[in-house]
Structure formats: structure tokens, C-alpha cells
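Page 47, continued from p. 46.
Same chain as before, 143 aa.
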Amino acid sequence: MTNTNFLRGMATVNFWADDVAAARDWYAKLFGVEAYFQMPNAEHPAYVEFRIGDYEHEFGIIDRNYAPSAMQPGPGGAIVLWQVDDIHAALERLLAAGATEYDPVTPRGTTGFITASVIDPFGNVLGIMSNPHYVQILAKLTA
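Result:
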């Protein structure tokens, strides 16, 4: 394979909710920023989007009515792991906001990779991670 940049980076992660406005408000409080995009409008959103993190990744919330027909109810599937500065503090913040533990803080080997995940109040799995590679890349890009 000659193209090593086939997957260039995460562009958007989409979560699902039966009540998009409630999910928007919960995440706005958690993130400390308001959604920058809401469709069709703020009163009755079917889709909202936040830009978060060092690279302003897009975090979308979609009305569950638009979920793929094969999607199973409840948490499952792939887990997107978001870099955090302090995994224990981040997990505590999520739990205090009303999330429930899905996977506890777990060291992955002895090289500094640590993961955890929660289920948000809307049934989505939100992963957090301490990732030495992320820190190294960010340091190179911001030097």
C-alpha cells in the first residue's frame, strides 16, 4: 500500500439521542461550549454539532430516528477514545455529570496508555484516554 495517510484523522464522531435538545444541553455543559451548528433549528434540532479539542474535531448528535436500520439498541460497537490530560479527573467529571461507567480506568500495558469509557445519559459510549503518542504529536505540531 503506497498511501499511508488513507485515514487522515477523525473528522466527525456522531452520537445518537432520542432527545437531541437534551443531549445538546448535556454536552454543552460538559464541554463548556455551545453547539455551533443546529439543524433545522435550535428549538427542534435533528442534528447538532460541537467543535472540541486541540484540532476542533466535530462532535455531532443526531436524532435516533435517522440511525442506520441495522443499528442495534444500546451501547456497543467501536469506541472513540478522546485524549484527556488527567484520566481520573475526566472520569470523575463525566460520572458527576450523570454518565455511568462502561469500562473502568485500565492501563493498557506499561507504556502509559490508559483508557476508560462511560455511557452518556442517551445511551452512547464515550471513551477517554491517556495516550503518549497523542502528546508527542501535539508537542511536535505546537513547537
